[in-house]
Amino acid sequence: DQQVKQNSPSLSVQEGRISILNCDYTNSMFDYFLWYKKYPAEGPTFLISISSIKDKNEDGRFTVFLNKSAKHLSLHIVPSQPGDSAVYFCAAIVSNSGYALNFGKGTSLLVTP
Amino acid sequence: DTGVSQDPRHKITKRGQNVTFRCDPISEHNRLYWYRQTLGQGPEFLTYFQNEAQLEKSRLLSDRFSAERPKGSFSTLEIQRTEQGDSAMYLCASTRAGAPEAFFGQGTRLTVV
């Protein structure tokens, strides 16, 4: 049962524009959310996270928004760069259960020049 | 390099053989996790250790799989009597105490022929 869903398998954006990657979850016990970036043949790299007590967290070009009532979060990348082309995974945890990550299936982002 | 290290990077084995993978976490991290990723899916949690204690196992971890972390440092994941369905990327990650952000190794790609 997929508790974290990324419904867009792929996204193409022009360099300099905003990339918006979406993620939905079903388990209301999730209280911490993370985004990872993955290049082929490498492990995921941590990007940014947000606690359920917040609705926004920003780090440079990356901003994560959380809408708890809708069980929805999104990652905004502004401005997008060709080096951002990768697969992006949304993950969620229940903090008091060992921090095991529940991942979505990922969204493949392509940033074109 | 002080990141998470996994060995080997690639392993090809015949069906029915046993294989063992090693993970060296970031040295000050006390939690270590194993995940498995198949094509088109996000990583799936297998098991985790806090120091040398194995605290949680996923139902994905059949009785052919065993993991150890004997001295609370490196960990091994063994798969006995491999099957073609075991072909996947096996990822190791570690976290500091109280911090949910997991840092991943580059993974071991297993191919069972």
- The separation of the N and C termini of chain A measures 38 Å
The overall average pLDDT of chain B, rounded, is: 94
Fraction of residues in H or I helices of chain B:
under 10%
Order of helices and strands of chain B: EEEEEEEEEEE
The averaged pLDDT of chain A comes out at: 95
Number of helices of chain A: 0
Blueprint of the fold:
The complex is a heterodimer of chains A (113) and B (113).
Chain A: E1 4-5, E2 10-14, E3 19-25, E4 32-38, E5 45-51, E6 56-59, E7 62-67, E8 72-77, E9 86-93, E10 102-103, E11 107-112
Parallel strand pairs in A: 2-11
Antiparallel strand pairs in A: 1-3, 3-8, 4-5, 4-9, 6-7, 7-8, 9-10, 9-11
Chain B: E1 5-7, E2 10-13, E3 19-24, E4 31-37, E5 44-50, E6 53-57, E7 65-68, E8 75-79, E9 88-95, E10 103-104, E11 108-112
Parallel strand pairs in B: 2-11
Antiparallel strand pairs in B: 1-3, 3-8, 4-5, 4-9, 5-6, 7-8, 9-10, 9-11
Structure, explained:
The complex is a heterodimer of chains A (113) and B (113). Helix content of chain A is 0%, strand content 53%. Chain A contains no helices and eleven strands. Chain A has strands at residues 4-5, 10-14, 19-25, 32-38, 45-51, 56-59, 62-67, 72-77, 86-93, 102-103, 107-112. In chain A, the strands form two sheets. In chain A, strands 2, 4, 5, 9, 10 and 11 form a six-stranded mixed beta sheet that branches. In chain A, a hairpin with a 6-residue loop joins strand 4 and strand 5 (45-51). Chain A is globular. The mean pLDDT of chain A is 95. Chain B is mainly beta and 113 residues long. Chain B has no helices and eleven strands. In chain B, strands 2, 4, 5, 6, 9, 10 and 11 form a seven-stranded mixed beta sheet that branches. At the A-B interface, strand 4, strand 5, strand 9 and strand 10 of A face strand 4, strand 5, strand 9 and strand 10 of B.
